[in-house]
C-alpha cells in the first residue's frame, strides 16, 4: 500500500504514493478477495521523522541529512519498513525519489501499533501475536544491512496487543492488550515491570504525560482572554516530576484512566 505526506492547514500534498511499485507482486490465487497486489497488505501505522538521531553531533553533514525525510511504516503482513526521500525536489509524485532502506518481518501476525523514541534511535512494535519487536534505528541508519542484528523479537505470554507508547526518557513502554490490561516493560530488556488492571475490554489508546514546550505555553498565554492560564510554573519540581510519570489509557469500554506510576529508577 502507498502513503502520502500532507502539509496542514494548507492541505497541500508534498509527497504522493510513497512505496508505489516497490512492493507489488502479481495477484495469486487464494488471496483475501480484495484483489490486493501488494504483498504487505495495508499500512497499519506510520512515523515521519528526519534522517539520523537527535543525539548525533551537529555538523554540516548531519544537518543536511536532517532535511531528508524518513517514513517508518508497519504493515498488515507483520513487516516494518523504513523509507527515505533521496531527491532534491521539495515535492514528489508516484513515489519517485523515495527508496526503501530496509525491511524487517519478525511478527507472525499484523502489526497493530508502533512507537518511536523521541530521539529517533529505536522503535517498538506490537501485534496480534505475543511478540514485541525492537528496532535499533541508530544502528540501521549506519548500516541498513544489519537487520538481522539490529532487530530483535521478544516473546511475551500475552497475545493480542493493540497499542503501545514510550515514555519520553525512552526507558519504559506501556502496551495495551485486547484483554484490557496495560503491561509495562523495560525498553532495554523488554522485561515486564508491572500490569495495570482497570479496563474491561481492549485498551486501545495510551499516552504519557509530558512537560509543555515553553514556546507553546507562551502562545497559549497570548491567546488567553477571560480565561485564567493554568501554568505549571507554579508547580514544585517534585510535583512536575510526578506529573511526568502519569499515564493515560482509554479502552473500548468507554473508560479513561489516569495512572500515576513509580519512577522505576536507574538509567536506560
UniProtKB/TrEMBL annotation:
Keywords on record: Repeat, WD repeat
Keyword Repeat (UniProt): yes
Family assignment from sequence similarity: Belongs to the WD repeat ASA1 family.
InterPro entries: WD40/YVTN_repeat-like_dom_sf (IPR015943), WD40_repeat_CS (IPR019775), WD40_repeat_dom_sf (IPR036322), WD40_rpt (IPR001680)
Annotated source species: Bondarzewia mesenterica
Protein name: ASTRA-associated protein 1
Amino acid at each position: 500500500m502507498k502513503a502520502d505526506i500532507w502539509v496542514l492547514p494548507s492541505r497541500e500534498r508534498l509527497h504522493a504514493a510513497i512505496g508505489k511499485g516497490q512492493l507489488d507482486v502479481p495477484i495469486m490465487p487464494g488471496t483475501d478477495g480484495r484483489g490486493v497486489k501488494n504483498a504487505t497488505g495495508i499500512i497499519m501505522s506510520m512515523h515521519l521523522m528526519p534522517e539520523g538521531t537527535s543525539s548525533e553531533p551537529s555538523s554540516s553533514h548531519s544537518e543536511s541529512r536532517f532535511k531528508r525525510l524518513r517514513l517508518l511504516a508497519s504493515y498488515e503482513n507483520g513487516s516494518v519498513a523504513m523509507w527515505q526521500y533521496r531527491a532534491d525536489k521539495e515535492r514528489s509524485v508516484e513515489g519517485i525519489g523515495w527508496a526503501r532502506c530496509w525491511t524487517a518481518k519478525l511478527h507472525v501476525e499484523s502489526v497493530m501499533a508502533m512507537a518511536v523514541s523521541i530521539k529517533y534511535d529505536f522503535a517498538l512494535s506490537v501485534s496480534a501475536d505475543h511478540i514485541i519487536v525492537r528496532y535499533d534505528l541508530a544502528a540501521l541508519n549506519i548500516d541498513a544491512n544489519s537487520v538481522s542484528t539490529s532487530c530483535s523479537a521478544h516473546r511475551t505470554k500475552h497475545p493480542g496487543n493493540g497499542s503501545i507508547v514510550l515514555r519520553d526518557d525512552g526507558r519504559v513502554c506501556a502496551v495495551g492488550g485486547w484483554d484490557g490490561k496495560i503491561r509495562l516493560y523495560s525498553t532495554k530488556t523488554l522485561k515486564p515491570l508491572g500490569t495495570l488492571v482497570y479496563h474491561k475490554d481492549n485498551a486501545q489508546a495510551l499516552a504519557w504525560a509530558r512537560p509543555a514546550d515553553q514556546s507553546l505555553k507562551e502562545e497559549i498565554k497570548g491567546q488567553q482572554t477571560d480565561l485564567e492560564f493554568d501554568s505549571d510554573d507554579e508547580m514544585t519540581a517534585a510535583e512536575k516530576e510526578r506529573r511526568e510519570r502519569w499515564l493515560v489509557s482509554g479502552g473500548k469500554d468507554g473508560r479513561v484512566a489516569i495512572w500515576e506510576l513509580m519512577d522505576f529508577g536507574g538509567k536506560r
